[in-house]
Design brief:
- It is a single chain.
- By secondary structure, the chain is mainly α.
- The protein has 3 domains: 30 residues, no CATH class; 52 residues; 66 residues.
- Helix content is 65%, strand content 9%.
- It is built from 3 helices and 3 strands; from the N terminus they run βββααα.
- The protein has a 3-stranded antiparallel beta sheet with strand order 1-2-3, with no helix packed on it.
- β2 and β3 form a beta hairpin.
- The protein is flat.
- 0% of the residues are buried.
Length: 171
């Protein structure tokens, strides 16, 4: 994709970029590849220019890698936050202003109470899910029974086999 600047004014801080029909605006960067007024045009060495271009590219890629690495670390920290919240709540309870001989007992008691509440909540959730499963199974069984009943109670099955055969021959 070739990017071409649409406007280039030296006193303007923003530059419009047209990238294959996608137009956007970004801050201008200082142009290092513009020839200075003291140097003569056409005397630049292509090998030096290529080396400078590679260095700029390498710096840009390293900067991008660093940015993405920071973003990955930030997301991992956000992912680990619930685990850290549980450990930090434990730390808060252990640093409460309680006499030293009672601090460990009360912290353990508080932790045990929290764990009991969690297990009771999990037990009630499991019970609710089990009831929902039973209701779903009953609905499925009733639907299946009605479906099979609709086939077994057809008027064709009311006849005896000989009568059925004769009625089929008559048609």
């Amino acid at each position: 994709m070739a990017t071409t600047p649409v406007s280039w004014e030296p006193d303007d801080e923003w530059e419009l970029i047209n990238d294959d029909g996608f137009v956007y605006k970004h801050r201008k960067r200082p142009r290092v590849d513009l020839p200075s007024s003291t140097s003569a045009p056409g005397l630049s060495d292509p090998a030096v220019e290529e080396q400078n271009r590679r260095q700029r590219k390498k710096r840009a890629l390293l900067k991008l890698k660093h940015k993405y690495q920071q973003e990955i670390e930030h997301q991992q920290q956000k992912y680990r936050q619930p685990d850290d919240a549980a450990t930090s709540s434990y730390r808060v309870t252990t640093t409460s202003p309680v006499p030293p001989e009672q601090s460990s007992d009360s912290a353990c008691q508080h932790l045990v109470n929290e764990l009991l509440l969690q297990t009771e909540a999990q037990k009630s959730i499991i019970g609710d899910v089990a009831r929902l499963c039973d209701v779903a199974e009953a609905l499925c069984s009733a639907t299946e029974e009605n479906f099979t009943k609709s086939f077994t109670e057809l008027p064709v099955w009311a006849l005896k086999p000989h009568e059925l055969m004769t009625s089929l021959y008559e048609d």
